[in-house]
UniProtKB/TrEMBL annotation:
Residues 147-302 form the Lactate/malate dehydrogenase C-terminal domain. GO terms for biological process: lactate metabolic process; tricarboxylic acid cycle. This is Malate dehydrogenase. InterPro entries: L-lactate/malate_DH, Lactate/malate_DH_C, Lactate/malate_DH_N, Lactate_DH/Glyco_Ohase_4_C, Malate_DH_type3, NAD(P)-bd_dom_sf. Keywords: NAD, Oxidoreductase, Tricarboxylic acid cycle. Belongs to the LDH/MDH superfamily. NAD(+) binds at G7, A8, G9, A10, V11, G12, D32, N95, V118, S119, N120.
Amino acid sequence: MKVTVVGAGAVGASCAEYIAIKNFASEVVILDIKEDYAEGKAMDLMQTASLNKFDTKIVGSTNDYSKTANSDIAVITSGIPRKPGMSREELIGINAGIVKEVATKIVEQSPDVTLIVVSNPMDTLTYLAHKTINLPKNRIIGMGGALDSARFQYRLAEALDCPSSDVQGMVIGGHSDKGMVPLASLATRNSVRVTEYLDDARLEKVSEDTKVGGATLTKMLGTSAWYAPGAAVSALVQSIACDQKKMFPCSTYLEGEYGLNDLCIGVPVILGKDGIEKIVELDLNDAEKNKLKESAEAVKKTNELLEL
Ligand SMILES: NC(=O)C1=CN([C@@H]2O[C@H](COP(=O)(O)OP(=O)(O)OC[C@H]3O[C@@H](n4cnc5c(N)ncnc54)[C@H](O)[C@@H]3O)[C@@H](O)[C@H]2O)C=CC1
Ligand SMILES: O=C([O-])CC(=O)C(=O)O
């Protein structure tokens, strides 16, 4: 199993590290445009192999795509992150060109690859990948909802004063400060609905804190987060690589599901060896349906900024 990670920055390196530590891939290629940068990250990570007991070979590449040839899975994290006060959507001017070029070069070397888009604005750049490269829709996946759901579970655990591992919850919709739709009515603590323990006001705060999860960390760190994003990407990669058929909310191209068409947005999917093997249609309540519709309208507005 060969995995390529484009972008050896904060998220790319974190994701490569989690993939290596989980020890399910034979090779991870990290590629960056900065001279020697990916090679340096690869060497540093390889020097953790004896300590962390993994056998994954990590290789760095300065913009040489031949090293990525025949990758099973490729992750695109190349591009700029936001700074405090910015929205993800403001990154489109620089990141659209980068993602288009990178996706094209990856597919030239690996025509059967499954592509995971991480660079922001993620839903729009996942849509861009759909419109510009020749891969079936099940092989183009946007990562956002898995991270947003992990943050939702973190905030729920905080409110419930329990470990995050006791909590289940999902966030669908666009990966944006306003567009996320945390599904509080479906969230549980070990099968008991969290609505049994938390009142509407507390749940509203949990949802609002979840939606601004990325912005909160960007303000604290001066750039956006990387540990939870890297861990979320590695979970998607593992579900595909090991054909685990786990369910994650991912940005995927919709053709009528949830009443939505011609956009990529976060909805629950089953991830296995064929990428997105199924889009799961939940029975949402009216409030959640309306929020998803509004979120889709905002994603479509950002999509209009693309030069397709
Ligand atoms: N979808 C999600 O949930 C998340 C998305 N992100 C996004 O991921 C992206 C990366 O974030 P960070 O890793 O923090 O940024 P970073 O600045 O640490 O790393 C980005 C790397 O991309 C490289 N790069 C730029 N252009 C390239 C090209 N044409 N080819 C190859 N490499 C290129 C840069 O040299 C740099 O090393 C940002 O757009 C950020 O907004 C970050 C966190 C979560
Ligand atoms: O907040 C950002 O810009 C990066 C990101 O998507 C996240 O951490 O959710």
